[in-house]
Amino acid sequence: MGDVLNLCVKGCGFYGRAQNRNMCSKCYKDFIMEEIISKSLSNIHLSSDTTSITTLTFNDTNENDAITNSLSDQFKDLKITKNRCNDCNKKVGLTGFSCRCGNLYCGHHRLPEAHACTYDFKGAARQNLKLPLCFKDFILEEIICESLSNIHLSSNTTSIIAPISTTDENDAITNSLCDQFKSLKVTTNRCKYCNKKVGLTGFTCRCGNLYCGCHRLPETHACTYDFKGAARQNFELTLIC
């Protein structure tokens, strides 16, 4: 004989089983969960001091239901965050590329120009190219050493004249030197005609300008030097001699 099917004692409308205390599977699962929570709450001990321990037992089913609902809501609110490209929202997992702007991108948008990066690369490079802090101390030491080397004895051997400036003056001189070094610009050798970088391979013409290999000849850069006049002058000098 099979089990006698009776309706669930909770009144949900489904059939219950004797193994589940005449409850359906869902109601029995909720019943077990309530029992576990009630047992855990009954074991809570709050101690006002080290001698007195008070055991709080919660027998109100409404409070247990409220706690159960709050716990279930917390579990429902938990979301698994997935790594996605900030530009195309593509899943990247552990293969994403972190940019200096702080976002994660896929392989197609990993370059700064591919995702309109907002990071100031030029500003960071300028910051790195600034003079180090030790340079100021180095200049200060040079000034002090130079001033100490200029110490000379006067006619009276007991009096020593030392033209050593104060620390404020040293700081002012050091700051001015640092400003001068910051204002210095590195000049690059360029062709006067096409503005091409030539470096150390440029050709200096008699007109005084620097040109590349394509414009090194006088006829290619409209040279203003008077070659005929210089030749006549040299020829006249040879005749006089």
TrEMBL record:
Highest taxon listed in the record's lineage: Eukaryota
Domain annotation A20-type: ranges: 2-36
Keyword Zinc appears in the UniProt entry: yes
Coiled coil, from the record: none
PROSITE patterns: ZF_A20, ZF_AN1
SMART domains named among the record's database cross-references: ZnF_A20, ZnF_AN1
Listed GO MF terms: DNA binding; zinc ion binding
Domain called AN1-type: residue spans: 79-125, 185-231
Signal peptide annotation: none
Gene3D superfamilies: 1.20.5.4770, AN1-like Zinc finger (4.10.1110.10)
Keyword flag Zinc-finger: yes
SUPFAM superfamilies: AN1-like Zinc finger (SSF118310), Glucocorticoid receptor-like (DNA-binding domain) (SSF57716)
Protein function: May be involved in environmental stress response.
Record's protein name: Zinc finger protein
